[in-house]
Amino acid sequence: MGRDGLGQYGKLGGRCVDKSSDLFDIRRCCRLRVATDKCGNATLTINLVENTRNELPLQRRAQRSSRYQKGQAYEGDCRFISDQSLSQVEPERCSYTNLVRRQVATHSYRKFHHKESQNSVLSQHVVIAPTFVKSQIVNMSKTPIFLTGATGYIGGAVLERLLAHPSVGTFDITALVRSPEKAKLLETFGVKPVVGSLTELDKLAALAEQAHVVFECADSDDLPAMEAILKGIKKRHATTGDVPIFIHTSGSGVLTDNAKGMYATDTIYSDLNVEQIESLPPTAYHRNVDLTIVQADKEGYAKTYIVLPGTIYGIASGPLFDAQISNRHSMQIPALIKASLARKQGAMVGLGKAIWPSVYIDDAADLYIVLFNSILANPDTTGHGREGFYFAENGEHTWYDISKTVSKVLAEHGIGTDEPTTFSTEELIKYFGSEDFGNYGGTNSRCRADRSRSIGWKPTKTKADMLASIKPEVEAILQRQSDV
Fold first, then answer.
1. Quick one: 98 and 178 in the same domain?
2. For residue 158, what is the domain's CATH number?
3. Which of 42, 326, 365, 448 could connect to 320 by a Cys-Cys bridge, CB 3.0–4.6 Å?
């Protein structure tokens, strides 16, 4: 026992201090559990432990309150927040059996001395940082969120939903955008824009470091950008103790084969089948990035979640799209339409027999929010890391189904016949950049969104809606071409 009566611990503002690291260390005094509900309120339960390791069933619930705007965040007993500094609090001893507790108010502290009996329970409201930021000024009414891809198809739809979220008032949303003009427009929506690109790795890392929640909706295959984001997240964890939430956009392309449109596979993946997903080769599309993200979760500095949509369809709508900030159109079906228009005939890869899942843009974007809400409300039961893959699908189609519908719509406009023909190798290279990329539209990718549905996701649009969406896509492309 040291001369201050605290053994290996020093004393600072009534908080336990590990002298060797000079960091507040609540874990050596207490058993700690933090849960956050869907509205962003953090609940802290602490079980104090004696030197003899007999538990004292003192429980505290600490709930964030919007009336505390800014304060100094510290680890320690309740990691409390106040507008006053620790220097205004008399130092008191903090040991296993003599722990100082404070009820925090805006301009005063009320001090309590721990003498409760073994069966006593004390509930008190203490403002805590949901991100557990140590020794820095933070806005306690806001949860910092960083989003990439805000001007894109998926990212724009996700941002629309974050801005319409019931707890949007507790969000501090930052978005990385390339266009200064779109950045100015985003400001009018209450978003903090940062002009930059995924190639600016230092900037990307710095933005990720500042966020408790990261939505990556820009690129499924940019490994350097992903490593930069994870670098920032890891630094945040190392300096604050926070374990950020990272929601990444991958795709069901990770499941693809080399069918070239000639056959349908019987292999169907479930997002609840961890071993099946882990059997995917590291050379599969998106897989190198996905594995890097899962490793971050395994190392413990982030909780990671990967959303894997199938063929996303539908012309996106909403204020961000109306303001021409975000892109309204998907990639796969419009690319097939454009190639068919260029050759003046609907087309397909091989015989079009391969099968893919499809999902409506609004249903896909809803999954991100359902997942986000589930993470906040049920952090222990919402799968993450190797159990954090979430497919987005609501039905399947063959590539022939799409090509046939494209051909019919083009024929209605006097372009070609209503029966698709097969792309030649030369055409695949001409219209898609390479034979391999062209054959992507002839691969199989079959999956079931069992985990996604288990957390409450309820997609509404089906294959019939997907096929019906093709005509307005064709007409939108024709209109744009005529406007040039």
1. no
2. 3.40.50.720
3. 326
